Please model this.
Amino acid sequence: MDLTAFFTMTSGLYVVSAEADGQKAGCVINTAVQVTATPPRISVAVNKENVTAGVIAKAGAFTVTAIDQTADMPYIGNFGFRTSADYDKFEKYGCETSAVGSPYSPQHACALFACNLVETVDVGTHFLFIGNVVDAERLSSEEPLTYGYYHAVLKGKTPPKASSYQG
Model:
């Protein structure tokens, strides 16, 4: 099987974040999608081993920001290649609080979706979190960063915990 076929699936890059019991967590994902219009719902896939997955489950809410094309590799590395277990990912890029109480950084983000968690589905290595969108906002007019742009232009790598990782 040619698993690189999955690289042809169009997707963006996002930061999903939450806060529970005083712990802020966030990570880069490439699997966020609108699943219904009424009510507006989105789903995100987060690796079970990521601190962010546990914090989302505890918080019962999460926020997704769509990364824009102004993002550079240090920004993506900050949210995508470090752990929230012992590092404050929001310190360097600023932190605001969404309508559901989740932290988010407005830097390099073109849109925001604040969600209350309505369902969690175990899909193997990842949890699929489905949320009711209670707030959505355009943060800038910049173009969203696609996974294809990340690989082709920024020459980014896929980390082992990503849903599209090719070991």
User: Anything to note?
Assistant: The longest strand covers residues 109-122. Residues 51-59 form the longest helix (9 residues).
